[in-house]
Amino acid sequence: MTHLPSTSRNGMAEATEAVEIRPGLHWIGALDPGLRTFDIILRTANGTTYNSYLVRGSDGVAVIDTVKAEFADDFFARLESVARYDEIKVIVLNHLEPDHTGALPELMRRAPQARLHISTRAPAMLKALLKPSEEHPLEYQAVDTGDEVSLGDRTLRFLHTPFLHWPDTQCTYLVEEATLFSGDVFGCHHCDSRMFNEQCGDFRFAFDYYYAHIMRPFKTHVMDALKLIEPLPLQIIAPTHGPILRDRPRRYLTRYRELSTSTFAERIGNEEPTLVVFYMSSYGNTARMAESIRTGAEEAGARVSLYDLEGGEIQPFVDLVESADALAFGSPTINGDAVKPIWDLLSSLAVIELKGKLGAAFGSYGWTGEAVRMIEDRMRGLKMRVPVAGLRIKLIPTDEELAECRDFGRALASAIVSGEKGRVIDFADLG
Ligand SMILES: Cc1cc2nc3c(=O)[nH]c(=O)nc-3n(C[C@H](O)[C@H](O)[C@H](O)COP(=O)(O)O)c2cc1C
């Protein structure tokens, strides 16, 4: 029988009974319909859920993930509706983020015999979380892909899926029920007390939004995880946030694959080296530099796009950055800094993988010219490679200086082609 947690008129969850997914397999999480901002960075128009699961086997019970600390009472009430604490043999933590480990210390106190199962990347983090001492040592089992724990007639098998979205992330597969406890993978912030995907409202937007903000920086790790998950028989995906995916669960794997190869460049690869030049300019000086850089880079075989940040919006620019092989940012120095739209774009790039992408900075200045160095520092901070030394030109560029800009563009294009790593090219020598 399925018990659905009811909601009161103000939308808050009231009932605290477990939801049966299958006999001996229950959702024992918590609903948080009032939440509007998650982890500072994510908006949610109808809250979220913290999903925790209980698996009963012939030889013991496993609890998979817990909930945020404020929701511990709901979690324990739901757990108690289907199991006793002394039956719990295994606690699995698919990653150690606080919204899934908030109730862990209290669960460990109530079920001291239960053995923690965490990924091989998690021990240091677990110690930082639980602060063990000589008096209270920490015991756990670190598990890797293929390791299993038996609950008698049911088996949990682990899949190492790091960086989705914490370094210690793993997924746990309940073999006999073809059920994947996927942690935050395939999750979303969507609170619907009906819990199952075919019964909930349309959450496709929330699913894609969650991916875009949480998983997108880790696309290569998503693809690695899919290689482990796709061959599995799959009847249910049980993530830690949002609906339980039991109706055609494979659609969500397909969607992750699409989203992880969603840019044109990722699908077919850039046919020629691509450089995107973003700039701002009040009197046209930095703009003239940008145009000459384009000319030089094109002469060296790059396909160049030139964008004045004044005329665009951040989101499409972020997509452009993701597809480009190299980026150049041009800013005049204004009051000892680069201009705000440059920083706005640079501060919006954390959602994509930038490691190893090429970057360069240029700009006109009047007397101190700090902007170029500041942009370079930021790009290095984002783990981009900066292979060509930044180019500053005092006030209005002369013909000779515009020729320098062309050399700069040519050097940047050459760096894309040669794949130079980290070496600073003196563009003036490339003539
Ligand atoms: C309000 C204002 C503040 C400026 N502050 C600086 C500064 O702190 N350091 C500097 O080197 N140049 C400064 N400049 C000079 C500009 O960087 C210079 O005029 C540059 O050539 C403008 O390039 P653009 O035409 O691409 O905007 C300032 C200019 C303005 C209008």
TrEMBL record:
Superkingdom: Bacteria
Keyword Metal-binding: no
Cofactor(s) listed in the protein's UniProt record: FMN
SUPFAM superfamilies recorded: Flavoproteins, Metallo-hydrolase/oxidoreductase
ATP-binding recorded as keyword: no
Keywords of this entry: Flavoprotein, FMN
Gene3D superfamilies according to UniProt: 3.40.50.360, Ribonuclease Z/Hydroxyacylglutathione hydrolase-like (3.60.15.10)
Record-annotated Flavodoxin-like domain positions: 275-413
GO molecular function: electron transfer activity; FMN binding; metal ion binding; oxidoreductase activity
Family per similarity comment: In the N-terminal section; belongs to the zinc metallo-hydrolase group 3 family.
Protein name: Flavodoxin/nitric oxide synthase
